[in-house]
Structure formats: structure tokens, C-alpha cells
Amino acid sequence: MAAKSAKASQPRNYKLIVEKDVQIPMRDGAILFADVFRPDGGAERFPAIMNISVYQKDKLWVPPADLEEEANPYMNWETVNPLWWCPRGYACVRVDARGAGRSPGKSEPSSHQEGLDFYDAVEWIAKRLWCSGSIGTVGISYHASSQWRLANLQPPSLKAIMPWEGRADQYRDQAYHGGIFALGFIGNWWLTHTAHHLLGRPRSYNPDAFHNDMMWNYMRNDLDSEFWRMSSARWDRITVPMYSVGNWGGFSMHLRGNTEGYMNAASRHKKLRIHTGTHFHPFHSEEGRTDQLRWFDHWLKGIDTGILDEPPVKLEIRTGGSQERYAFRFENEWPLARTRWTRMHLKIDREASSEVHAVEGELVKSPPKKTAKATYSASGVTRAGVAPGSSLATTHGNTGRTGVSFETASMREDTEITGPIVLNLWVSSTAEDMDIFATIRNIGPDGKDVCEVGQHGQPIPCVTKGWLRASHRKLDAERSLPYRPYHAHNERWWLKADEPVECRIEVWPTSMVFKKGHKLRLDVQPRDGVGSAPYTHFHADYNAGAENTIYAGGDRASYLVLPVIFPKE
Predict the structure, then answer these.
(1) Distance, CA of 6 to CA of 306 (rounded, Å)
(2) Is 1's pLDDT higher than 60?
(3) Omega into 335 within 30° of 0, i.e. cis?
(4) Which of 78, 93, 299, 327 could be joined to 50 by an S-S link, Cβ 3.0–4.6 Å?
(5) CA triplet 126, 16, 102: central angle to 5 degrees?
(6) Which domain range does residue 165 map to?
(7) Which is it for the CA torsion 337, 264, 173, 547, positive or negative?
């Protein structure tokens, strides 16, 4: 394999051609503007790596000093670096989406229309005299999400995709975690990019840019519907070769899209990679770029780089607390075939406490024989009272710890948890609805959190998270799996006061080796727990003054289903 890998495209001394503001016609007569970076190879024709986004093709990204690619005048947020790719025989094309950057028109971020526009741009570029006719797509986040919508449409010239840390289901992955509106990130994202356009340089050449009702539409469509399906991945239609790339730290937006894509896409040739680190360092690392190059060399140039000879799943296995990369391990499937799905039952020992480090119960292997319960406040309190109308109520409404926590005994040996997790929970509330926020944490022998590197480089004191609004507990039986519940989100099953109901909460996939002497901690809360920012949620008014109750034991079996991994034989 190493010999084949060495066959990947090597840099050559091409002159760089930069074409700014290339006008690309759309099927409805609209024009989108693009920048094209390509090697000058005379009569030689090159494949192209393409992107479309609202992030402005002309907006320079100045990377941090520790990035493995050097800063240059052509760097752009979450896209490939032309000064690395063009010498290796690739063109790089960045397209401003409709109503963004230099492209005129009605702004519709992350929409079906944007997918159609991407299709038209791909087919137009494929017909340029300098292009070989083969197009690939790679990019982070928005640049990954757009690839799912493009692949839905199956453009003939699209030969391979590599969605790098990209949400796929706009409802479940981004907008409504378990039916709870993810206001924190989306609201800030929308305001920031409106400001980038209206208070930034685009105002001078596109004064009506980024004018949309995105936030109104997101909140108006608070149940799943065709509105969301049109802008999401449709797995049965995605047949193009696909390398789905996730990040264990992306448990609040992107990771689910990458694992669901690998499990469900109709592509005959597909691979899955999950790494650690920030949202951008792995993409620009030498190791990451080598994976990208080997993938596209195979599908766009016909070079046998050996990448298809390797097992299809490549996982960075976290062992806890490192600021550096962990070692990768190859696997043959996802979830892993040798997984021992292990139930850890909730055992309630005491009533809820507001003390920061309190633990109300245990996670044990044997189900408690008798039912116990713990009750806690559903609403945060500020000096202005309970759930005031102030905008700060959604972000500053909690003056202390709420909810209940459970811990395992200290691990007797290193224990690997790799895969999706399910939390089965019996609950009731005095209100008509109830929000469940689940946080998995790694607690060291000193009683402190073992932190991982977050998406923005910050220390994150949690392993992964899950969410569910109790009225959204209805499951889609055809799509649900024993290890990954799939909620329909198409109607509300309101609660009756103090009547217990059973909820199955999808906790997003993870990988962590809990070291000997460490504990796994589960927090169940009515609000965002530790490690949530900036991916926080809107706390609806039914929380005000309500009390929530959790039940465990007896005929109210509450438990975690953990993917315990034993070493390969």
C-alpha cells in the first residue's frame, strides 16, 4: 500500500493562472460569480475541485501560525489551498452562492436551489477547454453540507465527493437537536454572515446581499417536513464515490451527518474517517491532505493510490486528555462488528442537588429491583425572575446546576467506548413538555473532567451529547436501530402532568478509552450542560416554573446502551 500511496500526484512547476469573477450561467438565467485557480499546462487538461458557499470567495482567511499550510493570498475559509493543489495538477473553483459575495439574486443558504446552482456550476466548469471533465468536491462544514445536496442530483461530471465534517440532515443535525431549536450557533451564524455582507466589503458591490428569511423559516418549520428534506441528504440518491470525514469533537452539529452518510448512502464505493482536533487543523494537515489527494487521484485521475485497498473505516481512537493527535486504527465496518452493546442502568440514590459536583446516582450493570425517582427544577432563575422576556433569559437563565448526574464505579481496566450511544429514560413533568439534555463526561481519579480539543481549539469537558424534547419521542420504526433511535419529529405527543413516559434519546457517536481509575459520568439536565457553547439551545416557555422527574428501576428501566469495544483477536 505504501508503494501505491507514493504514486499520488507530485508537485510540478506549473505557472498559476488566476481568473477572478468568472461568470457562470444558471438554468434560470441567473449568473453566479466564481474564482478559478488552475495550472497552466498548455494543452493539458485538469480535473477541478469545486466549492459553493455564502462565505465570500474574495474573503481572505489568515490561518493560525500552527497550521501545517502556510498563509498565502489565496487562502479561503474551509476550502482547499490552491498553492498546494494546483502544482499537483488540479484546478480549484470557488463559487459565491446566490445573493452572497459577488453573486446577485435571492439569498437561500443551504437550500435545494443552492444544490441546483451547484449542479449547473459543476457541469459548466466540466466543459471548459482546460478541464478534463472530471469534478470532485471537498471542503469543511458548509462546504461539506453543500456536497450532499449536490450529490442528491447526480450531476454526470461529479466523480467523487469528500464531505469533511458536514451535517447532512438539516433538521436533526443542525437546526433541531432532538426537536429542540439550536438557537445559539444558528442565530449567531446568521447574524454574523448578514453583518459580513451588509457591514463589510460586499456592501459596496452587492448592497442587497444575504437578504433572506432563514431564521424565520427555520423557526416556522419546527417539525420535520419536506421543507427540511429538500435541503438535506437523500441517501438513496447519493451514488457517487464518497469519503465521509467526521470529527469526534463535532458532536453538536456535523458528526452525525458523516456517520449516517457512511451507513446509509447508496454509494457502492464509500469510506469513513473520524479524527480529532479543531474544525480546520486536520483538514490542512499533511496527513489529511494526503488522504484527500489519494482519494481524488483515484477517482479524478485514475491513479491507483492504494486507498481502496485499505479497510473502509479509519478512526482516531481517543485515550483521553491529549492536545495532540491520537493514533488512527483501521476497521472494516461502522458500527464495529465486535461491539458488545452493554447496558448500564441508572440507579437513583438521592434527591437532586444544586451543588456543582453533586452525583445523584450510579450507573450499574444490574437493573435496580425497585423504582426510585429524582425531581428537579426545569427552569433557570435570574435576578429578573423565572424565564423573563429578556433576550438574556435563553443564555443567562441558569444560576446554578440543574438536573441529576450518575457515575460508574472507577474503571477496573482501560475500557474503550466507540460507536453510537442510546439513553433510555423514564420521565415526567408538571408541564406539557420536557427537554432532556444528556452529557457524557470522562472523570479522572482526581474528580476533574478530562478535556478534549474542541472545534474552535478550546478545552471541552465532555465526551459527547444527546438531546430530546419529550413531545418528540415518537420513533420512526423503519429507520430506528437498536443502537440509534430515529425520531419522526412529525407530530407532538404532549405530556400529561406527572404521568411517566419512556423516551429513547439518540446520543451522538463517540470514541473514548476510559482509563483505569476513571469514571463515566452522565448528566441529565433541562438545559445545556458543560461543553455546550457555542452550540446552545432555546429554552421554551413551558420550562418556566415546571418540575421534571426521572425514574429508574423496577418497571421503569432507565439505562445507557454503551458500545464497548474489545481488542481485535
Answers:
(1) 9
(2) no
(3) yes
(4) 93
(5) 60
(6) 14-240
(7) negative
